[in-house]
Amino acid sequence: MSAETAVAESRTAGLTARLANWNVAIIAVTVVVLIIAAATVDNFGTSQNFGFLVLDLLPIALVALPMTLVIVTGEIDLSVASTLGLSSAVMGSLWNSNQPIETIIPLCLLLGAVLGAVNGFFVTVLGLPSLAVTIGTLALYRGLAFVVLGDGAVADFPAVYTDWVTGNIAGTSIPNVLLIIAILAVVFGVVLHATPVGRAVFAVGASEQAARFAGVRPGRLKFWLYVVSGLVAGLAGVLWTLRYSSARADNGAGLELAVVAAVLLGGVSIFGGKGALPGVIAGVLLLASLQNALRLSDVSNEALNVVTGVLLIVSVLAPNLANAVRGSVQRRRHRTTKPL
Amino acid sequence: MTAAPARADSAVELPTAVTRRSSLDLVLRARELGIVLALAALVAVTAISNPRFLSGQSIRDILLGTAILAVLAVGQAVVVITRNIDLSVGSVLGLSAFTVGTLLRDNPGLPVVVALLIGAAVGGACGAVNGVLVRYGNVPALVVTLGTLYVVRGITYFWAGGQQINADELPAGFLDFGNATFLGIPYLVLIALLVLVITGVVLRNYRLGRELYAMGSSPQAARLAGISVGRRTIGAFGVSGALAGLAGVLFAARFGTIDAAAGTGYELNVVAAVVVGGVAVFGGSGSVWGAALGALLLTTIGSSLAVLEINQFWQQAIVGGLILLAIGADRLVAARVAASLKKRGSHVS
Predict the structure, then answer these.
(1) What's the alpha-carbon Rg for chain A, to the nearest Å?
(2) Three-state SS for A154?
(3) Among B150, B157, B324, whose Cβ lies nearest the Cβ of A136?
(4) Given an 8 Å threshold on Cβ–Cβ distance, is B137 in contact with A320?
(5) CA-to-CA dists, residue A125 to A119, A204, B230, angstroms
(6) Taking residues A2-16, what's their average pLDDT?
(7) Which domains are present in chain A?
(8) Which of A269, A326, B294, B299 could form a disulfide with B273 if both were Cys (CB 3.0 to 4.6 A apart)?
(9) Which residues on A lie below 8 Å from B158 (Cβ)?
(10) For position A151, what pLDDT does the model report?
(11) Contact (CB, 8 A) for B234 and B121
């Protein structure tokens, strides 16, 4: 064949090779988006906006960490946003009944863990599909949040706590909550990539049966992953409430979309078994900075959801399309060499 | 073979298949009977505590609400039977309602039938996009339709830009259609019944319908049996989208006031109606009759909460609880049926 097709072929082959390393690609895209946004959007690069950006991505980043592990095992947890909302509602209700905040916060974390355990029970003990279970608990937990708090709001949480969440580390422009994100990201990264638990997570996602033969107990592993997912969602609910100093039953509604989008954007396979935490962090950052830049450009929140939705679809579509392109290139090569 | 309608192949079934069919039938009938009993108990309790629950107006409200939810549930059942899911129906309903509302506001002379067709066409286009993404992108339906849920809703918000279509802007003929009755039955209910019967008969008695069940039972086996799984998948999503679009027109006719948020969160009620109605989330079983009964049960629960003066906020929690209860019950029944089939099989061999 002509030189042209050979060039095109090597170009597509190179493209697929690079797409195969999705982690590098997503980090590069994130950097490019950050540079473009800083150059073209007014106020994007300011330290004040950096603080807002971190606060905006806080709940997505926190919930995305356990979600990564859950999706790598081949399951999903759609109830996280409702767990966040119920945690926030309970926090408001307890604060209304004059409980000290020092007992409220641990109770909300415990509540999150219990809600996660309910998911885990249905998925691992009863063996029900996690998609259906967590759609059910998505409705159930959000409904309970409204039962607990109605459609009102509880405000005036102690300033010490709300100021800490919205404040910066003394003498710097680094937000305090970045510490929480960093610590949890390191913990989850180490667990996933450098411990037997992490290897078991990948093994279960790749083949549950093979993992069982290798001595992993998939049910127990998944159960605890759901507990952790609920616990972190409960924590996100507490931080959300303190950030806005407002406990509402509809806090975080729809957040599951952003979380799942960020995780899949970060290169985690929806079919399980594949993924890495650095990519997920980049996915969260990419999503949050895109939303932040668009919001600064006066795009409405509802229109932002279009961007998130499209990103979600593209991030699952792209690897499959890359595979399809690679497959058709190989077939064409096969066809052209055969007659010779 | 001639082009006679391909009926369910009851004549060529082996005896074992007949016993399996009958035990499965029994399970399904038990499910539908269970819903009817639950419904009767609910109505009885509510009516005893407040007789106004059985007034004509109250029953009419329940039927109208059921009509919209049932049309959505029938479409969802078709998709779930093929082992997929369509979470975008609430958003599609909103887009269709707003499209039709805008058209009717600007062209008051538009016949109702045309409005219904336009709504279905808008929805069908959205559904086809879902289907194409699922089929050619090789992506789980859950992810695709979670994405399009927000994309379609965002498009509606973008287009509406905060404006709202009020009842007094809509032509009187269209609003009459939402309230008028034929032989005492509201038009909306008649349309829902028509959709239900046509879909039910096609799914039960025609080759096309049986192919959808086959795909849901085992996509691989269906492909090996020569069913064009891809085209049927796109078709199923197209049907679900078109029915969601149709439901959007019914929504507009019933409520008259339409903004960009119309139908937000409906997908949870629709999924609940379908799984409560006995359509298994694993695909391959269930019927649209069950889904419609599920829709009736959910709508009745909503009204009786209001009549019993229970906090309306319980509605959503009950929806969630019912989903969990239904899939849990399905699992137990499936396990029992499998065990009894195994026992029977061991007797034979």
Answers:
(1) 22
(2) strand
(3) B324
(4) yes
(5) 10, 16, 34
(6) 50
(7) 3-337 (1.10.3470)
(8) B294
(9) 300, 302-303, 306
(10) 84
(11) no
Structure tokens at B325: 């209860």
Whether A135 sits inside 8 A of B318 (CB atoms) is no
pLDDT surpassing 90 at residue B344: no
The helix (run of H) or strand (run of E) holding residue A153 is strand A153-154
ipTM of the complex: 0.80
Contact B318 A143 (CB under 8 A): yes
Chain B residue at shortest CA distance from A119: B324
Task: Summarize pLDDT for B292-339 with one digit per residue, the tens.
Answer: 999 999 899 888 888 887 777 888 888 888 888 888 887 877 777 778
A270 in helix, strand or coil?
coil
User: Is B311's CB within 8 Å of A147's CB?
Assistant: yes
Q: Mean of the pLDDT values across residues B227-255?
A: 91
Distance to chain A for B160, nearest Cα, Å: 11
**Per-residue pLDDT averaged across A296-319, rounded?**
82
Q: Which residue ranges make up each domain of chain B? A: 25-43+51-331
Q: Match domain B25-43+51-331 to its CATH number in 3.10.20.30, 3.40.50.2000, 1.10.287.90, 1.10.3470.10.
A: 1.10.3470.10
Q: What spatial distance separates the first Cα and last Cα of chain B, rounded to whole Å?
A: 36
Q: Is the pLDDT of residue A18 over 50?
A: no
Residue type, B100: V
Q: Is A128 left (phi over 0), alpha (psi -120 to 50) or beta?
A: beta
**Gap from B154 CA to chain A (nearest CA, Å):** 5
Distance CA A3, CA A5 (A): 6
pTM of structure: 0.83
Residue contact A303–B268, C-beta within 8 A: no
